[in-house]
Amino acid sequence: MIGDDLLSADAVVIGSPVYVGNMSGKVKTFFDNWGLKFGFQFREGKMRNKVGAAFATGGSISSGKEVTMLTILVSMLSHQMIVIRGASATTGPDSPGIDAKEIAEARDLGKRVAEVAALVKQGSSK
């Protein structure tokens, strides 16, 4: 079950395409389900101190990717998660495709999430 997977994870990275300058409806529903379906009421802190990060894809350079990542991170913060900056890529019809810089940023994000999750886990075991 997805709720069990979230609870057992040390870190969660969630991505979304940009929809009208925001996360997609499916991603928003996923976050809504944390409380409605999985029973993760933010006051209970079930996701507290788990590391979270975001990534977004958008059709053009200034298509709202930053706002989309922020809305994802705000959802994580409301569940008392520790958030890491995001990564993004431009994927629209006029885009030449995901470039080396975007791939490097995504890899750096993954490394940073793993690094912080390991530090948090190490600190919680003391």
Notes on the structure:
The structure is a single chain. The protein is α/β, with parallel strands linked by helices and 126 residues long. It has a single domain (2-124), classed as Rossmann fold (3-Layer(aba) Sandwich). Helix content is 46%, strand content 17%. It has four helices and four strands; from the N terminus they run H-E-H-E-H-E-E-H.
Based on the model shown, name its key terms.
single chain; 126 residues; Rossmann fold
Task: Write out the CATH superfamily name.
Answer: Flavodoxin domain
In CATH terms, what is the fold-level topology? Rossmann fold
Number of strands: 4
Categorize the overall geometry. globular
User: Quick one: biggest sheet?
Assistant: 4 strands, parallel
| H and E string | HEHEHEEH
Sequence stretches where pLDDT stays below 50 over 5 or more residues: none
Give the proportion of residues in helices: 40-55%
The rounded Rg comes to: 15 Å
At CATH's second level, what is the architecture? 3-Layer(aba) Sandwich
Proportion of residues in β-strands:
15-25%
- At the first level of CATH, what is the class? Alpha Beta
Mean pLDDT across all residues, rounded? 90
Count of individual domains:
1
Number of helices: 4
